[in-house]
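Hi F.,

I've been meaning to write this up properly since the lab meeting, where we talked about keeping a consistent format for the predictions we share between groups. The idea is simple: the sequence comes first, exactly as it goes in, then the structure tokens exactly as they come out, then a line or two of notes. No screenshots and no reformatting. I'm using this chain as the first example so we have something concrete to point to.
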Amino acid sequence: MANFAASSTAPVSAVDVIIPKAADVPALLALVNALAAERNFLFMNPIDPVTGITILQRHLEAIAANGDEIVLVARDGRELVVLITGIRGTHCARRGAIDIGLGVLPGHRRRGIGHALLRGLERWALTAGCQRLQLRVMTLNTAAFALYRKCGFLVEGVYHASAVVNGRYYDEFGMAKLIQLAG
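Output, unedited:
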């Protein structure tokens, strides 16, 4: 299996960046649910702890089989602390664009781990022949915005009132990074 854990110039604490396997599913489920519980800037749905293990295992198997999606996680000791997902466009005209989702547990932010996972996702996208990484980030999420800018993402526009959290409307930046362009 390819190593997508790219080295980074950011000061990364001692974590392992991995593609989660079946043995990691309980820890991955715990990470997703911890991130979903934040309910502020992250748009992640919780997973049922009983039925979710089987569903998550099948989802990881499907990802491994189709090559159109990747999940990378960072492990700090026995705990998974950061999650990044990348999904290719399904239409043939959008196959080169990867939609990104990133979640970092609060105690592991600003340590370079998100940067390392973004680099790993970029390496995967390049091996998959993709040219573009794209995402949305709430305009108030200054820490995530700074991370994406540091990693070379540019603002392409603003989605006004595109998110509703606790009954309040929020704007999001549409951001992207071109990683390669075919001649």
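Notes:
The two ends are 29 Å apart (CA to CA).
The CA atoms of residues 24 and 80 lie 8 Å apart.

If this format works for you, I'll send the rest the same way.

G.
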